[in-house]
Design a protein that fits this description.
Elements: H1 20-68, E1 72-78, E2 85-91, E3 93-94, E4 100-106, E5 109-114, E6 117-123, E7 128-134, E8 138-143, E9 146-150, H2 155-171, E10 180-186, H3 191-196, E11 202-208, H4 212-221, E12 242-245, H5 249-258, E13 263-269, H6 283-291, E14 293-302, H7 310-321, E15 326-333, E16 341-348, E17 392-401, E18 404-411
Parallel strand pairs: 10-11, 10-13, 11-12, 13-14
Antiparallel strand pairs: 1-2, 3-4, 4-5, 6-7, 7-8, 8-9, 14-16, 15-16, 17-18
Helix pairs in contact: 5-6
């Protein structure tokens, strides 16, 4: 055995085994390990990134939902005859799926009406018009998503806003007035005009509705409202005494005053003081009403709810009071409007107190001279002495006649 270099058979010295391949192998393994380790770190980083994105998205959703729920409420109710849960989305307006409509009365108080079917939907120059069908109320007319009237719940409102001033005109005159001219401002559904046409003494009814699409929708879908009061099977506009004017009420009143075309009774069946309707609550409007009224005439105005829209009530009263010597609030009963009790007002130009001559105004009252109706929503007369600050002091049932209640609410 020879120590040192190994000599092959040809006498040449064999080189010592190199360690370079082993070093390269180790470096390759180390490189592979580092690459694998880096890929694992990248995978974890990607997972964490997506988790953070998901968490951020979830919190953004919660923030959006919190702001969204201020206007929309989700109410889940189980119906006894239905085993499935029914989720109802309600708001002050129409739900996204058009299955419910609601009117917000106050904070936490909402009236919701279910839509079993959409009968009509359109957008006019002025507003969105919708007619839905409800089992309890029948066809319901909505303007901009807010319920306005329904076929089965309109009589109590329309009869009271019309027959109280008409009863005053008849009972305040010994000879009994004939050839009366009547004006309806708003009231495109036709209910107030229909009640005025019940009176044989009315020679002409002018319906001043700025949006003709409202009247057309009522004519097509609210057949129990847009119907002649005593000519069976005929629509409201079949009566030649009815004249429909589609123009701004203020401009119409100015023209009427200019040419001396005055009225014995004016019914302001206007919408709420929102948007264009605000003009019908200004002092100048009530001054026009007084100018367009004949001596001894009367004006009736819808005045909101004392319970939920007290500001509207006070605005209407005091601004009427500035233009008329005598103003008396009274109440009608309606299921669709906030609180069930809806305030109306009667103002007289002569200064005569209507409470002294009007006890009960009803289509069932034979003294008024109109045919009886099968459906009557109830009658309310309100006698009061108004001060700058109004407060209800007492409510009592005064009497009962022909199935109708007559109420007196003393306000001091």
């Amino acid at each position: 055995m020879i120590l040192g270099n190994i000599v092959n058979g040809k006498g040449s010295v064999l080189p010592e085994p190199s360690i370079a391949p082993n070093i390269g192998f180790r470096r390759k393994r180390e490189s592979t390990f580092l690459t694998h380790q880096a890929s694992e770190v990248g995978y974890v980083h990607t997972c964490l990134t997506w988790i953070l994105i998901g968490v951020s998205g979830f919190f953004l959703f919660l923030l959006w939902y919190a702001s969204y729920s201020d206007q929309w409420g989700v109410h889940c109710s189980q119906q006894q005859q239905n085993t499935s849960n029914e989720t109802v989305v309600i708001s002050s307006g129409l739900s996204l799926d058009k299955a419910w409509t609601a009117a917000k009365w106050d904070h936490g108080i909402v009236l919701a009406v279910k839509s079993y079917s959409v009968l009509f939907e359109s957008t006019s120059k002025f507003q969105d018009i919708l007619v839905i069908n409800n089992k309890a109320l029948g066809p319901v007319l909505l303007l901009d998503g807010i319920p306005q009237t329904s076929s089965k719940d309109e009589a109590g409102y329309h009869e009271m806003i019309v027959h109280v001033p008409m009863s005053f005109l008849r009972k305040s005159s010994d000879e009994g007035r004939t050839s009366l001219r009547a004006l309806v401002i708003g009231g495109g559904d036709g209910g107030s005009a229909r009640e005025l046409l019940r009176h044989p003494s009315v020679e002409e009814v002018v319906l001043c509705e700025i949006d003709p699409a409202v009247s057309q929708a009522s004519k097509d879908w609210m057949e129990t409202i847009w119907v002649h009061p005593y000519l069976e099977g005929l629509p409201l506009d079949a009566d030649k005494r009815l004249r429909i004017v589609n123009e701004d009420a203020i401009e119409f009143l100015k023209t009427s005053v200019k040419y001396g075309e005055l009225f014995d009774v004016i019914v302001v069946d206007a919408s709420d003081p929102v948007g264009p309707g605000v003009a019908l609550y200004q002092p100048s409007f009530y001054e026009l009403l007084s100018s367009a009224l004949r001596p001894g005439g009367a004006v009736s105005v819808q005045a909101g709810s004392w319970l939920y829209f007290k500001e509207c009530f006070l605005i209407v009263y005091h601004r009427l009071r500035a233009s008329f010597p005598t103003v008396r609030p009274y109440t009608c009963i309606t299921q669709l409007y906030p609180g069930g009790f809806w305030n109306l007002m009667i103002a007289t130009k002569s200064g005569e107190d209507p409470s002294s001559s009007v006890c009960t105004a009803s289509s069932r009252d034979g003294n008024v001279g109109v045919p009886p109706r099968a459906n009557h929503g109830g009658t309310c007369c309100l006698h009061q002495r108004c001060e700058p600050e109004l407060s209800v002091s007492s409510v009592q049932i005064m009497g009962r006649g022909d199935g109708c209640l007559s109420w007196m609410c003393a306000i001091q």
